[in-house]
Amino acid sequence: MKVNKELLASYLQEQNNNPESIIITMNNFMKLFPFAIAGVCKKFNRILKPLFYIYHAYKMKQYVVLSPT
C-alpha cells in the first residue's frame, strides 16, 4: 500500500497542532498501558517464579526436584 508522504506529513502536523488529538492519544495510551504491563509481568512471572523457588530451596539447603509434568 502506497502512502502519499506529503499528505501523511500534513496530517501528522495537523494532529500535533490539535490539543484535542493529543488528549485522545494520551487517553488511548493510558487505557492500553495496564494491559501492556500485565502482559510483561505475566511473562516475567513465568520465567522468574521457577528461579525463585530454586534459589529459595538452595538458601534453605533443600533439594529441588523438577518434575517433567
Describe this structure as you would to a colleague.
With 69 residues, this protein is mainly α. The chain has one domain (5-59). It has 2 helices and no strands. The model has no long low-confidence stretch (mean pLDDT 73).
Task: Describe, in short, the structure shown.
The chain has helices spanning 5-17, 19-59. It is mainly α.
Helix/strand layout:
Elements lengths: L4 H13 L1 H41 L10
In the predicted model, the low-confidence regions spanning at least 5 consecutive residues are: none
Order of helices and strands: HH
**Number of strand elements:** 0
Number of domains: 1
Anisotropy-based shape: elongated
Report the end-to-end length measured between terminal Cα atoms.
48 Å
Mean pLDDT comes to 73
Percent of sequence in beta strands = under 5%
Could you give a short account of the major beta sheet?
A: none
Rg calc: 24 Å
Instruction: Give the count of helical stretches.
Output: 2
Determine the structural class based on helices, strands and strand pairing.
Answer: mainly alpha
Helix fraction bin: over 70%
Oligomer: single chain
